[in-house]
Design a protein that fits this description.
This protein is an alpha+beta fold. Helices cover about 30% and strands about 20% of the residues.
């Protein structure tokens, strides 16, 4: 795989396709494992762009694996450590897929996203301005855009929307009703502990992790796992410390750049099938590469 290789849709000739998500394609390996391929597709505002970002899937996979290994003492993850050679029989397919694919355990995905917020930014700003709350949680008044939340980090779960629909924030008591109080508290504790460790680590390297979202799963024994991806430029807001200013929209090493482009074009309400200009595609690729270098090298 070269730096400019592009994978829009994965095809593995010897494995049956289970599903195609916004970014990841899943293939069945056996009754206990599946192959997860992070393609170069990119989504924003719950829509998949027509334009892929070259090499993005490999970056997301490598960053996720880095964090998974760091957080193993907080929560287990879905990595199986089965090599690709054992599951992708075609040598050319395996070479092209490269770092984009991992063999993972089949787990029961929990029906929510575990979002952790350390700073006031994005979709919650309107609620904060009008109600003084963030996802229903009262916080200090008078905070400015991008300011650190004194009561944070806050755990603000959301529903999982179908492709093309929008996720919706839910209160913690709603999550307790959805998955049970004990399971909800365990998920919250895992997400906050991981965020705190990652935020401290990243800050030492000049990156603020403003917020992030987690996917969680459960095995047949009720053990909670971190699944899908973790602390990537797709699932997090990464801000460079050097240019961060309270009250301003920060520069970022994530797909906020794409969101800003779509908003400027009036496409934030319907971004499905958008073709991104080369400048946006290449700058996004540069940002993702830089995030990986700063955080993992």
């Amino acid at each position: 795989m070269t730096a400019t290789s592009v994978l829009q849709h994965a095809v593995i000739s010897n494995l049956p396709l289970l599903k195609r998500g916004k970014i990841r394609d899943m293939f069945s390996v056996d009754s206990e494992h599946m192959l997860m391929v992070a393609t170069d597709r990119v989504s924003a505002y719950d829509s998949v762009m027509e334009t892929p970002i070259p090499g993005k899937g490999a970056i997301l996979t490598r960053i996720s694996n880095f964090w998974f290994n760091m957080m193993e003492d907080i929560a287990p993850n879905h990595l199986s450590h089965i090599p690709l050679e054992q599951v992708i029989t075609d040598e050319h397919e395996r070479a092209f897929i490269g770092d984009r694919a991992i063999v993972v355990k089949k787990l029961q995905s929990l029906p929510f996203e575990g979002i952790v917020r350390g700073y006031l930014f994005g979709s919650v700003e309107k609620e904060y301005i009008t109600k003084g709350t963030i996802c229903g949680i009262p916080v200090t008044s008078g905070l400015q855009k991008a300011e650190k939340i004194p009561e944070g980090p806050l755990f603000t779960p959301s529903t999982k929307a179908m492709l093309g629909d929008h996720d919706e924030n839910i209160r913690f008591d709603e999550l307790e009703h959805l998955i049970g109080p004990e399971r909800a508290r365990r998920c919250r504790d895992i997400c906050i502990q991981i965020y705190k460790r990652a935020a401290a680590y990243a800050l030492e390297r000049g990156i603020i992790i403003a917020d992030t979202k987690f996917e969680l799963g459960e095995d047949e024994n009720g053990v909670i796992y971190i699944i899908d991806e973790i602390l990537t430029p797709d699932s997090s807001r990464f801000w460079p410390v050097k240019t961060y200013r309270v009250g301003e929209s920060p520069e970022s090493f994530d797909k906020q750049y794409i969101r800003d482009y779509l908003t400027a074009q009036g496409l934030n309400k319907n971004a499905k099938g958008v073709v991104l200009p080369d400048e946006v595609k290449l700058k996004t690729m540069k940002k993702y590469n830089l995030a990986e270098t700063i955080l993992t090298k």
